[in-house]
Amino acid sequence: MYFCIRDDDTSFFTSPDELEKAYGKISEWGPISLAVVPFHRAGASKAVPEKLRGRWSIHPIHENVALVRYLRCGVSNKRFEIMLHGYHHDDPERLGEFLSGSDLTKKVSDGRKYLEDLLAIPVRVFVPPRNIIGKDGLRAIARAGLHLGGVAGVRAGWPLRSRTTWRKWLHLRRWRKNGGVGVPWVLELGDHREIAGNAVTPSASLVRNREALDCALKIDGVFCLATHYWELSAPSKNPNDPTVGDHLRYFIDVARSDHRILWRSVGDVITGSTSTL
Predict the structure, then answer these.
(1) Residue 21 lies in a domain
(2) Is the pLDDT at 58 greater than 90, yes or no?
(3) Which of 224, 216, 221 shows the shortest CA–CA distance to 195?
(4) Do 115 and 83 meet the contact criterion of CB atoms below 8 Å apart?
(5) Domain containing 79: what range?
C-alpha cells in the first residue's frame, strides 16, 4: 500500500523554522508534499498572520528569501515535494479561488512556471485552496497536464455526459454502501488523476482515519493524509482524540513500522500507483 502526506499553505508567510519544527525529523523518514501558494493574498486564511489579515495585499513567495533557500535544499535532499496550491489562495468573495473564472488556465500555467523556475523542480499536482474546485478549475489543471490533490466528484465538475464519471460514481457508492471508508484508489479521469486526502485537522476523527487506513491496507490501495503545518499544535475538537500533531504522528508511526506500507510523495503515488479506479 502507498502512503503519502500532503501539507497545505506554504507561502510567503511561512518561516523555515515552522516547517522544520513540523517536519524536520519526519521528512528524514519519508517525503512531505508541500502545497505551495505562489502569490498569497493577505486575506482571511489562518495561515496569514493576524495583523495582516484582510489587507488583501499580494505577497510573492520569492520575497521570503530564507524560505526559498530552505525549500530548495529540502527538495534537493528529497525531503519535500512541491505542489501548486492555487495562485493567490484567498478569494475576497470567499467562494473558492478555483471554483470558476476565465483566468484560471492562466493562473495555473503562470503559477506552475513561477514555482518551477524559482525552485528548479517539476510540479505535477494541483491542490485547490480550501479544497474547493469546479468545472473551470478542473479544466484548467487538465490543460496544464496536472493532477488533483483531492477528489472533485460529480458535484464539483466531473463531466456528466461521461461514462467514466458514472462508473466511478457507482463504484464509490457501492464501496461506501458495503462499509468502505475513504477513497483508497487513485482515480483515473482520462485527462487527469485525483487522490483523496484524509484530513488531519482539529475536526478530523482519528477513528475514521484508522478505518480508512485499514480499508486501504486490505485492498493494497493508497492512503494520503492532508494537514497544515500551522495547526499541528491545535487540540482536537473530538473529546477523546489527540492534538493534530499527535494524530499525524500516530499514522507516521504505523507507516514506519508496517512492512506493507510504502511511503512516497503525492506526485509519485498519483502518477505511479497501479491501484487505480
Answers:
(1) yes
(2) yes
(3) 224
(4) no
(5) 2-272
